[in-house]
Amino acid sequence: MLLTISDWLQSTWLSHAFISQGRWAWPMCESLHFMGLCLLVGSVGLVDLRMLGMAKGIPVAALHKLVPFGVGGYLVNVITGSLFVVGDADQYIFNDAFRVKMLFMLVAGINVLFFYSSAFQKTKLLGPDDSMPLNVRIMAGVSLTCWIVIISAGRLITFYRP
Q1: Based on the structure, what is the number of domains in the chain?
Q2: How far apart (Å, rounded) are the C-alpha atoms in residues 29 and 19?
Q3: pTM for the whole structure
Q4: Does residue 161 fall inside a structural domain?
Q5: Per-residue pLDDT of the chain (162 residues; tens, 9 = 90+)
Q6: The domain containing residue 13 runs over which residues?
Q7: How far is CA 52 from CA 39, 61, 66, 77, 118, in A?
Q8: H/E run at residue 3
C-alpha cells in the first residue's frame, strides 16, 4: 500500500514541477521550512519555557501574543514539508526518521489541543511571578520534548535514506 501511495505521489504534476522543472524549488522550500521552524519554536518554545518556570516576571498572557507567529511558522512548515513528501515520496514514506517525526507531530498536536481545552483559561490569568500548576508544566515539557524530537528526526531524514 505504501508503495502505491509513493508511486502515485511521484507521478503527480506537483511532484514533477517541484523536482524536475524547478531548479530552485527545493532550496527555497528548505529555506522557508527553516524560517517557519524558527518562528514556531521561537515563539512556542518561549511560552513553554515560561510555563516550566523560567523567565518569571513575564506574564504568560504577554508571551502568548507570540503564538500566532508560531502558528504561521507551523503552516509554512506543513506546506513546505508536504512539498518535500510529494517531491520525493520514497525518501519520506519509507523512512523511519520521518515516521518518528510524524508520530511526535501527532503527540504535539494532541498535547496542544489538550492544553487549550483544559488549562489555558486558568494559565493566562496567572500573574507574572506565579508558578504554573503541575499539569501545565507537564504539558509544556511534553511540548518541548516533542519539538526537540521533531527537529532531530527531521535532520535525520536525510541521513537515513531507505
Answers
A1: 1
A2: 11
A3: 0.85
A4: no
A5: 666 765 666 666 666 666 656 677 778 889 999 999 999 999 999 999 999 998 888 888 888 999 999 999 999 999 999 888 888 878 888 899 999 999 999 999 999 999 999 999 888 888 888 889 999 999 999 999 999 999 999 999 988 776
A6: 2-156
A7: 20, 15, 17, 26, 17
A8: helix 2-11
